[in-house]
Amino acid sequence: MYTDFASVYDRLMRDVPYQAWADFYLKLVKRHAPGARCVECACGTGGLTIPLARAGLRMTGVDLSGPMLELAMAKARDAGVAVPFVRQDMRALSLPSRADAVLCTCDGVNYLTKRADVLAFFRAAHEALKPGGALIFDVSTPYKLGVELGTATRGLTDDDCAYLWNSVWQERTRLFGIRMDIFVREGGNYRRIVEEQTQRAHSREELSAWLAEAGFTAVRFYGDKKLRPPVERDLRWHIAAIKDQARSEKR
User: Fold this and answer.
1) Where are the beta strands (DSSP E) in the chain?
2) Confidence of residue 126 (pLDDT cuts 50, 70, 90)
3) Which of 112, 162, 184, 199 has the fewest CB atoms found within 10 Å of its own CB?
4) Is domain 144-200 in CATH 2.40.30.20, yes or no?
5) pTM metric for this prediction
6) Is domain 6-141+202-250 in CATH 3.40.50.150, yes or no?
7) Domain ranges of the chain
8) Percent of the chain at pLDDT above 70?
C-alpha cells in the first residue's frame, strides 16, 4: 500500500487544511492528555506530525509505508524539526517508553476494516500509553462515506497530473472501496499509477464498545474539528478515550 502512490500523495492532498486539523488535535491533546509526548500512527508523509511538532508536542511518527516515511523524514528536515519516524504496523504498536497520547489521524482507523484489527490497534495503543494517557483519533463518518461520497466517479486534471476516482459504497457491509488511476507527467510522457483502497464506516456504538473492550474509559466524540458533540451531517468524528489510571494501578 502507498508504494508508488507515495510519490504523488502530497500533490493530490495539497488542498487538505492540515494546519487547521493540527490546531484541533493540539486542543484535544491539551484537553485530554497528561503531557506532550505523542505518537502519531498512520502519519503518512507527516502532514500533521510536523505542524504538531512545531507547536511544541514531542512527536514520533509511525506508519507502515516505507516510501511515505522517507518523504516525511525529508519534510521534517526541511522544516527544521526533529521528529523520529518509525516503520511499524499500528496494530502491533510497540514503543520503548509509554506515551502521553497516541494519535491516529487521517482516517487511519477507517482502513482497519475488520473488528479484530480495530481491537488489536486499540489494545496496542492502550498498552503504549501511560496511565491517564489518551488515545485520540479521527474517522470519516458513515454519512461521509455512504452519502457524501458514495458510489461515484470523479476526476481531476492539473498541469502535470490527472486522476480518475471510482468509488463503490456497500450498504450492508459499510465498506467503501476506491480505485484511483493517476497519470503523472514525466518529460513528454505520462506514468500511470493505480491505487486501490478500502475503508469501513464504523458506527459510534461499535467504536465505543471496542474501546471499552480494549480497556479505555471516558470516551468522548467530537464533531468535525469542533469541541461539540457530533451532528447528523458531520463528515468526520474525533474521538478521545482515556487509559484509566485507577484501573492501571490495580493490575
Assistant:
1) 37-41, 58-63, 85-87, 99-104, 129-140, 152-157, 161-170, 175-186, 189-200, 216-222, 236-243
2) very high
3) 162
4) no
5) 0.93
6) yes
7) 6-141+202-250, 144-200
8) 96
